[in-house]
Structure formats: C-alpha cells, structure tokens
Specification:
homodimer; DNA-binding
DNA sequence: GCTACATTAAGCAGATATACCTAAAATCAG
DNA sequence: CTGATTTTAGGTATATCTGCTTAATGTAGC
C-alpha cells in the first residue's frame, strides 16, 4: 500500500519538526518535503508531488493563502490542509475559496491532525469546530432576527415560481409560456412581488431572491 | 457544574437506546428526553428545555428538517445536532439553513458523538467530513475549469462598473447619474456586456455576474 | 355568509430597455 | 504609424416592462 505523501509548509522550524514527528509515527504516512515559506511550498509541490500539503497561513513572502491558490491551480490533485493559529473570517473564507480541503487550528492534538490528513487524502473535508461555525453562519440568513424571513411568509407559491423563472433570466413572455399563463398574469404576479418585496424592478427582485436564499445560484444553468 | 441536558429524537427505539447508552457514560451529560417523531421532539423541546437536541432526519410525520426549523425558531438557545444516515445535498443544505449546529452521519463512533455534543454545546459547529466537503464545494466557484474565468478577460473596467451597479438594481438612468454618464453610454456599455456574455437581458447578465463571483451578494445592500 | 387572499386576466398609459447603426477621441500593442 | 479596443454618445425603432385599475373565480378562515 502506498503511503500518503505529505508536504509541510511552516516558517517555524520547530513546528515543522513537531508535525513531522507526529506524522512519522503513522505507518501509512510519509513526509516527503518541508517548506519554510509559500514560494518554497509551491516549488516543492511540483517536485515531490505530495498527496496532502499541510500549510500554515502566516509565512514570509508568499503567504499560505496565495500558496494554496497556486498549488490548487497547478496541481488540483493535491489536497491542501490548512493548519493555522488564526481563525479570522477573512482568512477562513479566502482559504476555502482558494480550494483548501481542510482548516484546522493549531490547538488540535496529534490524533486529530492525523485523522484530518486521512480525511482530506480520501477526498473529504475537515473543519475545526470554530471554523465550521463561521462557515455555517453563512447559511443562516438573518441570525439576530427572531423570525427567519421565509419566502412563504411574503410570497405565494405561484409568485415564487414566477420569481424563480425570472431569476433564470426569462422574460415575462417566456415565463408565461413556461407556466402556460397569459403574459398579463405574469405581469400581475411580478407586480405583486415588487410590492411585497418593496422593490421597483425585476433585477432588484431577482437579487433579493438570491440574497435571501429563496433561489440558489446553483439552480441556475 | 450543571450537566449538558440532551434530547434524543429518532423513530427507532434501538437507536435512541444506543445513543442514550453512549451519552450516559459521560459524567457531564444527561439525557432528559426522547422523542420518536418530529412533533414530539418540538413539544418536548419546550418542556424539558435541553441544551442539545440530537435529531434524526427520517422520522414519521414531522421530519427532522421541519423539527429543526421549528425548534430553532421557538428556542434558539437549543443547539441542534443532526445525526442521520443520509448525506444527500438536499437534506444537508436544508438542515444547515434551518439552523443545525452540527451534522454527523451514523457512521460516527461513540467518542466522536460525545465530542460533537460538547462542541455544539459550546457554541461551535461540527460537520462530518463528507458533509464538510459538500459545504466547502459551495465556496469553490469553478471546480473543474483550469482557468478561472475572470471578468477582466471578458469585460472592460468600465463595463464591470456598469454591471455592478446594474446588479444592485439600478436602472440605466440611475447608473448614468451615478457614473456621470449619458444614458446612451450606459445603454451602449450594457449592449457590449450582453454581446460579450452571450446573454440577452440585464437579468441574465446580473445573475451571471453573481454566479461567476464578479459581484458578491454581500456587496449588495 | 362575509372577508381576505391567491390566481387568473385584461385595458391603457408611460417608462425602460434593447437592437442596430454610426462615430469621435483616447489608449495601446504591433 | 496603423489597427484594435475602449469609452463616449447620438439616431431610430421596437420590444419589454411597470403602474394603476378593474374583475372573475376559488379557497380558507371567522
């Protein structure tokens, strides 16, 4: 069975050593490279072809975010596991957008790190609990509000249908054809939608629908 | 020290028993209620006031998704931890939107479940690795494509400005005023945008801009 | 039964947007 | 310098959308 090849990128030598120490005790893991900065990490990634790259955010020169982007761009097969001291939102989302498969804080114990490496090697993703919380918060539209705005509280079923089609770029006539309605009916529905949403154009309504999550960008071809 | 009060909701009694068994071994946890369906879970949540509700998706009558929504709506302080056999996208995102703080698959071992309960009790979030992967995939805009389409490859700076304002729901005249341009110029820019993007309406262009990430929903007031 | 709302549809006026055309000044690469 | 692109803008015409109003039907709640 081939071992999991691992690249460690961290500007502190002692952290690299410690990490290597932990991983070395696993029979199925092999640290094939160490980098002290982002540029080195990118270069080494191309040479040693690791399966998993464990990358720190704070590194001199090219930082972990940029390194992750470039590694994922050039070698998409490499799974990037972020191991950082920071859980600032800015870093978190930049990293996830850059294509990181995992994000752990340095408070993890060795066992968890080892597990995480196996997870990302297997194509899964790992998020540290406090990171997961941040990510999940992106899914709750109105956290403070006691009543979560649901489209059904504002719009009727039919209106939502119309709005969905509008969001896909259809004209009123197209929507009418699609739903087997009169053009005037579609216009009426949209008029009601505008009033209920307190907007004055189809574009505003569409953006609203997306922003509130009534329609997902994934739904749109 | 007060124990963590836990409510278990699952339609299979044996699963409830097993879960209770695992949690009972923890000195700081107390199973204060069991529900066999969603309606019961919602009702009990109001009576026993648990700190954490462990909820299964597949339940007769009111399912786990609806139960989660209602529990979070009525008692936001209760942390909902989903423990399910399914990892279908549909369920996952519905649950997360409903306000679940954690999502584990039934393949977890007892230790992990116990840890997860403590995490969500502490206000953190826990995602099973395969769930985390799905969630993270929402953050990578163009997964397959090697070259991420940048707006600058397609659209000029000015065109992007116009498109951004259009995305915020402004009319052509509004955009013209905002950028101190003639209405005709804005029309011209939009015409060029439509041609370049191969679309035929402002709405399509706007959705495209959002889908490609040229404009973020967060940018929009 | 009455009230409220959803769904359907229409008339009419006016606002907006889009298509297709030309064109001048500015900028930039070859 | 020359050609391409960008940015600006206008002409003309049509298409589409939006506002305001009315109204018939059906359904749900009091």
């Amino acid at each position: 069975m081939p071992k999991i090849k691992i690249l460690i990128a961290d500007d502190h030598a002692v952290v690299r050593d410690g990490t290597r120490q932990i991983l070395a005790q696993e029979p199925d893991m092999d640290v094939v490279g160490e980098a002290a900065d982002g540029a080195d990490a990118i270069r080494l990634a191309g040479i040693v072809k690791p399966d998993v790259a464990i990358i720190d955010i704070a590194m001199p020169g090219v930082d972990g975010i940029e390194a992750t982007k470039q590694i994922k761009a050039k070698y998409p097969a490499i799974a990037v596991l972020i191991l950082s001291a920071y859980d600032d939102d800015q870093f978190v989302f930049s990293l996830l957008e850059a294509g990181a498969a995992g994000y752990l804080l340095k408070s993890v114990r060795g066992r968890e790190l080892v597990d995480a490496v196996r997870q990302v090697y297997g194509g899964e993703s790992v998020l540290h609990p406090s990171i997961a919380r941040k990510v999940l918060n992106r899914f709750v539209p109105a956290p403070g509000k006691s009543s979560v705005k649901k489209p059904t509280d504002m719009l009727s079923e039919r209106e939502i249908e119309v709005l969905k089609l509008a969001t896909r770029g259809l004209s009123n006539q197209d929507i009418a054809d699609e739903l087997c309605l009169s053009l005037r009916t579609v216009q009426a529905h949209l008029g009601h939608i505008f009033n209920k949403l307190q907007v004055s154009s189809r574009t505003e309504a569409v953006v609203r629908a997306l922003k509130e999550g009534w329609v997902t960008l994934e739904d749109i071809p």
